[in-house]
Specification:
By secondary structure, the chain is of the alpha+beta class. Helix content is 52%, strand content 11%.
Amino acid sequence: MTANPQLLMMTLSLHDDTLSHRLNELHNRLLETVPAVDRIACALYDEKDDILKTFINSTRSGVALTAYEYKLSDSLTLSSLAASGEFRVLDDIAQALQSDTAHSAWLREQGYRSSFTVPFYDGGSLAGFVFFDSIQAAAFSPQVQRDLVLYTNLISMAIANELSAVRSILAATRVARELTEVRDFETGSHLERMARYSRVIARAVAPRYGHNDEFVECVYLFSSLHDIGKIGIPDKVLLKPGRLDPAERAIMETHVDKGVQIIDRIVGSGAQQRLPDSVILRNIVHCHHEYLDGSGYPRQLRQDAIPLEARIVTVADIFDALTAIRPYKPVWSPTNALAELDRMVLAGKLDADCVQALHDHLDQVMAIHERYADTDAVS
């Protein structure tokens, strides 16, 4: 039976919450016509780092592959698919995939016997791949392939729409910064590092808290907006080179509530919100200055009352603030910065799991620190 495009589009539009939920609903529809598809997975492509990273999946047989990334250039086959826009059919995975990559080994371990891989694009650039896997051999006939290309188009449209909404938010906040001539030290390099440190931490801690790769990607995308409320802080406070006095500190701390107001105006709030995952964005903006012991601001939240995404960004922000060039302090080495984070954990301020994630993935942290270093020293 051929897939019904109108019914599929209705499935994607009616369940307007997370992409993961929508993919599961779409998989349910797909099983009515192609019951052999045991897994659908989408990987996103990060062109800056040439990385394919797991994003959303619907897995009915086996254990889902999560928190996995791989350099596209290390795969000649996927690189070729990305360049050509063609599809790949594997009728016998065990025979076709002899490589020892984690992904190939995982496919074999889960008992998948055939697969169908389709690249998808956004604005002419590679956005990622959709993988369909089956525990049956040779499950992807030409007719099935035609149906799955339709499903891939719908999946890629849903992902593109969501990422487009995120990009619109980022663009709107950048314009706001430029119009108000915000000139603090949140450089592009800082925001790049912040996002990537946050992603390293989120990938490490997400499984412990039952979160998936979509959560990780949202933290990665939204972390750079944590201090957007500084747009509303007067330059005489924002750019003051020395310590702030109590009155100035009180003004500076209002940037959190100002940030929430800005986000609510851009994405809406409550039933009117225009971005399903905007709760993660709002939590990051509203809670990234809260400490576990209640000594943070603006609401003096404690422990689990602080959302995980905010605890992640808090650790990433402090680590970067310590190790980055600033006119009012010396640059800390990553080792000394981690020691300070450990001290703050012992003092009951920071999430121990989030700090431990930086220790456990220090090689990734150092690679980010070096690749996205500030280019202009501040004298």
